[in-house]
């Protein structure tokens, strides 16, 4: 969980303020898709709901 949170933080941090928003959303989507695909069998519903909560705030 911490690894995906840190990736999202890097992709959406202050250093990326000049990045095209479309590109930022694509990169975040790719990171999330890769993480959820890798962990879909081992991660529980609670883990995915925590990730959803992190992304919405």
Estimated structural class: mainly alpha
Distance between the termini: 16 Å
Amount of helix: over 70%
β-sheet strand percentage: under 5%
The number of strands is 0
| Cα Rg | 12 Å
Principal-axis shape: elongated
Average pLDDT level: 84
Give a quick set of tags describing it:
mainly alpha; single chain; 72% helix; 57 residues
Outline the structure in words:
This protein has 57 residues and is mainly α. It has a domain of 34 residues. Helices cover 72% and strands 0% of the residues. The chain is built from three helices and no strands. Helix 1 runs antiparallel to helix 2.
Brief rundown of the structure:
By secondary structure, the protein is an all-alpha fold. It has helices at residues 2-11, 21-39, 45-56. Helices cover 72% and strands 0% of the residues.
